[in-house]
Amino acid sequence: MTSLRLLTEPSSLCSSTFLPFNPLYKTLIKPTTKPYPKLSPIRSVLQYNRKPELAGDTPRVVVITSGKGGVGKTTTTANVGLSLARLGFSVVAIDADVGLRNLDLLLGLENRVNYTVVEVLNGDCRLDQALVRDKRWSNFELLCISKPRSKLPLGFGGKALVWLVDALKDRQEGCPDFILIDCPAGIDAGFITAITPANEAVLVTTPDITALRDADRVTGLLECDGIRDIKMIVNRVRTDLIRGEDMMSVLDVQEMLGLALLGVIPEDSEVIRSTNRGFPLVLNKPPTLAGLAFEQAAWRLVEQDSMKAVMVEEEPKKRGFFSFFGGAAICQLKCCVHKMPTTPDVRSTNVHILLECLYSSWVNGDPYFYQHQFSRIWKQAISI
Ligand code: ADP
Ligand code: MG
């Protein structure tokens, strides 16, 4: 809905002509007597007004890995992959989780997988027959290594995957912009195979000590393999637990792993719902907090950008000038922006996302989103 239109029709929102007449834009960037320490969080709020610039050579071969299982690698591959497709990039997602594949389920494509890479390598089918086009975005294709619960043929390893990536580059349709590899859990042969063709990595972790320990080990192995461009996504973040000091903050995670931050994804029951429906979260209408966070991560991946974990101080509610446009909530939001950033933490992530929701709902004049979703998301954002 809202962000979808914005992402697919960037030209409809020409920043130079549109933004100066946008009251929210004015409230966000109007110079004040008290200058903001840094403007980067605010600038990125307005990112939907342009198309992201693809950094680096294509295809960008990105492995999504973690070490520990169940932290959200497949969820990240599906959602970041479809966000990239929506941004107009061609994407091939390879499910390298041999035997326990589930990317096809998350994408709702399980009935369309007729051939896998094993059959391609055996000469039983062509590569394009094994590529499954997404139902919604034709520039997103899925490639599975093998049938569920099957074992790989002896000798299938990193070299086979490198051959596959080369074959994808040489396709008649043209080389894809992104090849995402959904890595299996663990650090054994499957992991080594999955990382071999990659030149960059997205490390998914949750803020708990077991996942972090595995993530640290995996970082070392990736570096040994020559993958230096490693960014992390911190998934399943619960700000109520961070506030109660029952969960590590994103800053703690960053300090422990020393990696650039690609995104912070909140714990969201919508993720589980969308997994079960085979309908990736980023396609949800209206958008959810976790969906927007995945979209932002995709945006940063394109531009090889990273984010900072920052904290926002909240000020008491004020009424007055902004009451015509969302009342006290907007006023409070503006106060948050004024104070941004002060102390590093996860807080601004939600405010950041909230700003984007508010901004996109406003430019689209979407009353449904505004009335029903805004208050829900706002409550989450300020309850940190
Ligand atoms: P992995 O591929 O690392 O094994 P998955 O992506 O399959 O992990 O996710 C494992 C489970 O965690 C799934 O049931 C998924 O729905 C759930 N999950 C992942 N991310 C989130 C989140 N941000 N909020 C809630 N549930 C999540
Ligand atoms: Mg998985």
Description:
It is a single chain. The two termini are 27 Å apart. Helix 11 (209-224) links the parallel strand 6 (200-205) and strand 7 (229-237). Helix content is 44%, strand content 12%. Residues 1-48, 310-348 and 362-372 have low confidence and may be disordered. The protein has 18 helices and 8 strands. It is of the alpha/beta class and 384 residues long. The chain has helices at residues 2-8, 15-18, 23-29, 40-45, 73-86, 103-106, 117-122, 127-130, 158-169, 189-195, 209-224, 239-243, 250-257, 269-277, 289-303, 328-338, 347-364, 367-382; strands spanning 60-65, 91-95, 132-133, 140-144, 178-182, 200-205, 229-237, 260-266. Strands 3-4-2-5-1-6-7-8 form an 8-stranded mixed beta sheet, sandwiched between helices. The structure holds adenosine-5'-diphosphate and magnesium ion.
Q: Terminal Cα separation, in Å?
A: 27 Å
DSSP, total strands? 8
Please, what is the oligomeric state? single chain
Mean pLDDT: 75
- The percent of residues in helical segments reads 40-55%
- Side by side, the strands of the main sheet go 3-4-2-5-1-6-7-8
Determine Rg (CA atoms, Å): 21 Å
Residue share in β-strands? 5-15%
In one word, what is the shape?
A: globular
Quickly give the structural class. Answer: alpha/beta
Largest sheet geometry = 8 strands, mixed
Which characteristics define this entry?
single chain; alpha/beta; 8-stranded mixed sheet; 44% helix; globular; disordered N terminus; binds adenosine-5'-diphosphate
